[in-house]
Amino acid sequence: MLWTAIAVLFFISPKTATPQPGIHEFYQVTGEMHRWYFSLSDLILVIGAISGIGGGLRIYVNWQSGKSHHIDAQVMGWFFSCLFLTIIGAALKALYGIN
């Protein structure tokens, strides 16, 4: 009889809901990751722009000096590297859920 009363009191007693440990830290890291992402995203775009300008100048110099037998491959490589940077940026935004 005593065990039955203890079991009834245990199941009837109100339980307080406490958040899981680490939830506050998780939100803090999420905010920090968003700040880091935008900083790194801007840095990668600047590096990509500098590399693109350098690649474009190299192609222009080769074109003007008459080394035009590999120009198509260089232009395609330059174009697809720029396209790759753009797609990777969008994919990382989607992966991390950053709007």
Question: What would you say about this model in short?
Answer:
The chain has 99 residues and is mainly alpha-helical. The chain contains 3 helices and no strands.
Could you walk me through the main structural features you see in this protein, from its secondary elements to its overall organization?
The protein has helices spanning 2-12, 23-64, 71-96. The protein contains 3 helices and no strands. The radius of gyration is 29 Å and the shape is rod-shaped. Helices cover 80% and strands 0% of the residues. The model has no long low-confidence stretch (mean pLDDT 77). By secondary structure, the chain is mainly α. It has a domain at 40-99. Helix 2 runs antiparallel to helix 3.
Keywords:
mainly alpha, 80% helix, 99 residues, single chain
Point out poorly predicted stretches: none
Radius of gyration (Å): 29 Å
Instruction: Give the CA-based shape.
Output: rod-shaped
What is the overall number of helices? 3
Encode the helix/strand succession as letters: HHH
Mean pLDDT: 77
Cα distance, first to last residue? 60 Å
Percent in strands: under 5%
| Biggest sheet details | none
DSSP, total strands: 0
Instruction: Supply the helix-strand structural class.
Output: mainly alpha
Percentage of helical residues? over 70%
Annotate the secondary structure layout.
Blueprint: H1 2-12, H2 23-64, H3 71-96
